[in-house]
C-alpha cells in the first residue's frame, strides 16, 4: 500500500533514527511522524470504518516496510526519556482509543500511562486506572506491577504488599514473565524499609540477568564488556 502520507511517514521516521544515531535531538520530527500516522488511520477509516482495527494490521498492510509497531515503541520510550509526561499521557490515550486491542493486549502502553499519571501527580487517578485494568486482566503481571507502583505512590503499603505476596512466594523464581513484578517488589520493600526482602528479590533479579548474559555469551551475541545490568532509579517516577 502506497500513498503520499505513508511516504511522508517513512521519511519522517527515517529522519528520527538518523538524528538518533547522530545524537541530534529533534522532538518535533517524532511528534510530526505520529500525527501523520494518525492521519493515515483516520483517512483509511473515512473510506472503511473497520480499517486497521488492530495496531499490528498497519505493518501487515505495508508488508512491514515501516515497522510501525517498533517505531511507536521507540517514540513512547523517547517521550518517557525526555520527561514529557503530558505528551506521553496524551499519546498513550490516543493509541488506546485508536485500536480495538482484542488480539494484542496494550500492556506496555497502559503501564506507561500509569507511570505518566504518577509522574504528573495524578496519583489517585493512576490507582483507579490500574485497579480497573487489573480487574479486567487479573493474571496480567504488568497490570499487577503497575498497581504496586500506583499504590506505592499513594503510600497504600498494605494493598501493595498483598498484591506482591499473591504472585511472589518464597520459592518463586525471577524470569522473563515476572521480572517486571520483581522490580516493583524491590521498589516496594525498599520504600517499606525491609532490607532483607529487598535484597532477596534483588538477588533473584540479578541471577536472572546473569542467566541471560550467559546465554548471550554462549551464542556469541555480546562481548565480554557489553552486558551491563543497572536498574538504579528505574522506579523514580512512582515515588
Q: Which range does the strand content fall in? A: under 5%
Q: Helix tally? A: 11
Separation of the first and last Cα atoms: 46 Å
Percent of residues in helices comes to 55-70%
Judged by helices, strands and strand pairing, the structural class is mainly alpha
Mean pLDDT: 91
Tally of DSSP β-strands: 0
- Which regions contain 5 or more consecutive residues with pLDDT less than 50? 232-236
* Computed CA radius of gyration, to the nearest angstrom: 20 Å
What oligomerization state is this entry in? Answer: single chain
- The shape, in one word, is globular
**Largest sheet, strands/sense/barrel:** none
Helix/strand order, N-terminal first: HHHHHHHHHHH
Description:
Helix 6 runs antiparallel to helix 7. The chain has 239 residues and is an all-alpha fold. The model is unreliable at 232-236 (pLDDT under 50). The longest helix has 24 residues, at 195-218. The chain contains eleven helices and no strands. The chain has helices spanning 4-22, 27-47, 56-61, 68-81, 85-98, 107-119, 123-136, 141-153, 157-167, 179-192, 195-218. 68% of the residues lie in helices and 0% in strands.
Amino acid at each position: 500500500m502506497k500513498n503520499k502520507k505513508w511516504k511522508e511517514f517513512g521519511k519522517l521516521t527515517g529522519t528520527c533514527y538518523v538524528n538518533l544515531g547522530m545524537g541530534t535531538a529533534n522532538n518535533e520530527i517524532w511528534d510530526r511522524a505520529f500525527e501523520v500516522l494518525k492521519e493515515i488511520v483516520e483517512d483509511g477509516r473515512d473510506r472503511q470504518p473497520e480499517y486497521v482495527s488492530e495496531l499490528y494490521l498497519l505493518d501487515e498492510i505495508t508488508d512491514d516496510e515501516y515497522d510501525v509497531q517498533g517505531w511507536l515503541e521507540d517514540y513512547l520510550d523517547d517521550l518517557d526519556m525526555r520527561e514529557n509526561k503530558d505528551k506521553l499521557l496524551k499519546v498513550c490515550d490516543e493509541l488506546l482509543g485508536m485500536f480495538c486491542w482484542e488480539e494484542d493486549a496494550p500492556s506496555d502502553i497502559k503501564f506507561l500511562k500509569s507511570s505518566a499519571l504518577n509522574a504528573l501527580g495524578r496519583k489517585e487517578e493512576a490507582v483507579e486506572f490500574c485497579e480497573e485494568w487489573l480487574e479486567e486482566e487479573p493474571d496480567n503481571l504488568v497490570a499487577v506491577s503497575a498497581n504496586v507502583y500506583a499504590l506505592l505512590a499513594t503510600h497504600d503499603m498494605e494493598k501493595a504488599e498483598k498484591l506482591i505476596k499473591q504472585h511472589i512466594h518464597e520459592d518463586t523464581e525471577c524470569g522473563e514473565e515476572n521480572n517486571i513484578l520483581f522490580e516493583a517488589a524491590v521498589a516496594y520493600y525498599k520504600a517499606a524499609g525491609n532490607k532483607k526482602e529487598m535484597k532477596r528479590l534483588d538477588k533473584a533479579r540479578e541471577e536472572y540477568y546473569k542467566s541471560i548474559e550467559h546465554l548471550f555469551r554462549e551464542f556469541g551475541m555480546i562481548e565480554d564488556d557489553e552486558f551491563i545490568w543497572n536498574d538504579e532509579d528505574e522506579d523514580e517516577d512512582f515515588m
